[in-house]
Design goal:
Chains A, B: Residues 44-318 form the D-isomer specific 2-hydroxyacid dehydrogenase catalytic domain. Chains A, B: InterPro entries: D-isomer_2_OHA_DH_cat_dom, D-isomer_DH_CS, D-isomer_DH_NAD-bd, NAD(P)-bd_dom_sf. Two copies of one chain form a homodimer. Chain A is an alpha/beta fold. The first copy, chain A, has helices at 18-22, 25-31, 44-48, 64-67, 90-94, 107-122, 125-133, 157-168, 196-199, 222-227, 245-254, 295-312, and strands at residues 8-12, 35-39, 53-56, 76-79, 98-100, 149-153, 172-177, 181-184, 188-192, 205-208, 233-236, 259-262, 282-284. Chain A folds into two domains: 8-105 and 293-312, Rossmann fold, CATH 3.40.50; 107-284, Rossmann fold, CATH 3.40.50.720. Chain A has an eight-stranded mixed β-sheet, with helices on one face.
Chain lengths: 330, 330
């Protein structure tokens, strides 16, 4: 039996994640004002029945579409990530359920990661580690990053944080987004993503950080890699599906581009038989570029703040435009 | 027989370096106005006899002291590095020979390298490479660099470039130099190196970039490492002899500090039996942090500019105070 006053909150989390939540003072605060149902994927349909709110803490789970039929009175869905593609299925998109995301939590951390991999390429830090393993003292000349040209594909808050960080470190940046424009405060010039290939030849580094939408899926394909400089490095901190993975592998093999730093993949975990693991000049990390120590607390606190807003009728933060697939810029 | 008008320039270079010089338009320009003697270490004494100028292009060579007796009319010595310790022997210091160095060429490149290794530690990029080699998908949480405290020991132009770069990337910096002060444009606070141990406990990263002098030799010893945070990382882009190597190894073994990125060593090349090669959380590079593509040309051009100044009676750039052991700040 459900209390008249207490809203029902379903929380989708993995078995290994429940402790993050139940141990969190922010969630404990919510438990005093709501009936909270923690559930894994298998129990999601039951938990959604009569639930007012769904908090998708396990943000890589693909369980929501299959359980959606049980969401008989859901009003709001919050996801603990910046990308909302795991919950952007047609029934959700067409419903009246409000969708919010965790925009902002990861921005600066991802920007630091991108600068780190750019410097790792420029200074050949991975080459130094390989030589160190063999106890080989082999002097090399390395690249400057000052003045190098970077194209950041994706002009949301993460892309903007990357632009500010790389520019602060002496690089020259431009953006690519839905709409071409000049005078952007972070990017200066923004090219139209639809005309990406004609702009790619000018850049030393290309960073993918666009949201995954119908327009951006497979944006980085053979034609895009062919348009890049042979000396260019490709960095993906957005979504694996922005890339046609086979085309990327072929571009690396053929020398169409000089290297790639990949934090996201179209299949995660990256399968053990992927050739990417062992390709030279490829840096693999397991979808962690934004995950600084403390990120889980920060995510939970962001949800708790939004939950308080929802309870008190205050406008929610980070409301996603479900037609665009992301939170529009102000 | 030496022409009356043409000064004699001795150039100390390794066998594998002569091509850099003889192929350089800048050196070819000098050859039209001076008698140029390219020599390796074995021929240095002969080359110094009646030479007016010595250009130490092989800046790691220790050959100058042994040949110094032959320098019967030397007036100026230029070294193709920022550190002048290879030519700071007593007979040189006490002579009237003017000493200039290559200050400025490496500053920004070394600053990029330092930021790269800081980010490599914070984002565990070397850990990602180790896991990649094993095809292991293992998520970790990593550190932010924003707000982290860095002490830069050495307030010359390289230290200043490092300070500006790290601050631009969001870190908090302070310096350590001969004289404690506040309000420094690059460092804000500068501590006295003589009181280093009392300041070290406050810092997450400690960067050694001081010139090697009697005062700085062995500055980083067991007491200094004991004073650092157990989570601190030590970065040496100055000189290996700033560090008591055995004490550093012991500090890494015992956990007195959390890691080290080392570009310079008291013996170079680093001997194959050094335990540093295989210690966890130690990044080794072979004295290359400043050596960007094109650095050799830039070094030769700097010397050529100074040579032109010397020929025309214009004040030389980068005159070293031989008592201090470096070019004093303006």
């Amino acid at each position: 039996m459900i209390g008249k006053e207490k809203p029902v909150l379903a929380v989708l989390c993995g078995d290994d994640q429940a402790g993050d939540l139940t141990g969190s003072p922010a969630m404990q605060g919510i438990e005093s004002t709501a009936l909270v149902r923690y559930t894994g994927a298998a129990g999601l349909a039951d938990a959604l029945r009569d639930a007012d709110v769904l908090f998708v803490y396990d943000f890589l789970s693909r369980a929501v579409p299959d359980a959606w039929h049980a969401a008989n009175r859901l009003r709001w869905l919050h996801i603990a990530s910046a990308g909302v593609d795991p919950v952007m299925f047609p029934a959700m998109r067409d419903s009246d359920v409000v969708l919010t995301n965790s925009r902002g939590v990861f921005d600066d951390s991802i920007a630091e990661y991108v600068l780190g991999v750019v410097l790792s390429f420029a200074k050949d830090l991975h080459g130094s580690l390989d030589l160190q393993r063999e106890r080989r003292w082999q002097h090399r000349e390395t690249e400057r990053i000052a003045g190098r040209e970077v194209l950041i594909v994706g002009t949301g808050p993460i892309g903007r944080a990357i632009a500010r960080m790389l520019r602060a470190a002496g690089m020259r940046v431009a953006g690519a987004g839905r709409r071409a424009r000049t005078g952007d405060p972070d990017f200066g010039t923004v090219h139209a993503s639809a005309a990406l290939a004609e702009h790619l030849p000018a850049y030393d580094y290309v960073v993918a950080v666009a949201p995954l939408t119908e327009q951006t899926k497979g944006l980085f394909d053979a034609a895009a890699f062919a348009a890049m400089k042979p000396s260019a490095r490709f960095v993906n901190v957005g979504r694996g599906e922005l890339v046609v993975t086979g085309d990327l592998i072929e571009a690396l093999r053929s020398g169409a581009i000089a290297g790639a730093a990949l934090d996201v993949f179209d299949t995660e975990p990256l399968p053990a038989d992927s050739p990417l693991w062992t390709m030279p000049r490829v840096l693999i990390s397991p979808h962690m570029s934004g995950d600084f120590l403390g990120w889980r607390d920060t995510l939970i606190e962001l949800f708790a703040d939004n939950f308080h807003r929802w309870r008190t009728g205050t406008p929610l933060r980070n409301v996603v435009d479900k037609q665009l697939g992301y939170v529009p810029s102000e």
